[in-house]
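May I ask for a protein sequence together with how it folds?
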Amino acid sequence: MPILELPDEILCHLLTYAEDTDFPNIALSCKKLRILAMDGPLRRHILLIRNPARLSVSLSSRPTRDILASQNILRGIHIKQHIQQGQYIGGASSVRSYHISCRLERQMVSIRIAKKLKVRPDWTEMVERGLIPEEMFVMQEEFETKRRWKTYQQQQQNQRLLLQQQQQQQEEEDKEDEQYSCYRKQPDLWGQCEPMQVDGKDQ
């Protein structure tokens, strides 16, 4: 038997089990169900009897404020102390203080992340180390350009180090030449000495 051939009383009873968010879709299905979904006594029963009954059942099993605060579901500044003292925790000042504390916490987290990002290596170096795949970057040409530029910078740095080593070596050689230059400038005294005679023989 099709559902639309049932009596209106049975259809209304079945609609009492539908959720509030389902009624717009039910009203769009056909003309008969749209008339029943817009029925005044049906909607009054749902709003005044069914929904409060469901709410009372769910509230009876609702955890206390202490449990919610211990599970970090109900949050606020000194909220456990306020709950123990029986104070109202939904005031404007407490809500404002909680939002300020959340904002400060986010700022501290952003500062820590910024410090970590400053010491993070360049993404080209991370690709070369194999930490992240090269396919993550859409611009292949940009990656090649940056890698060539980094290679060029490394070569320039090596050349500067080599020039510094050469300059240091040249300075050391110049110092050695200055130390031995005084000996080169002295006259050859051995050539000016006359041979000595021992027992009538030249030495």
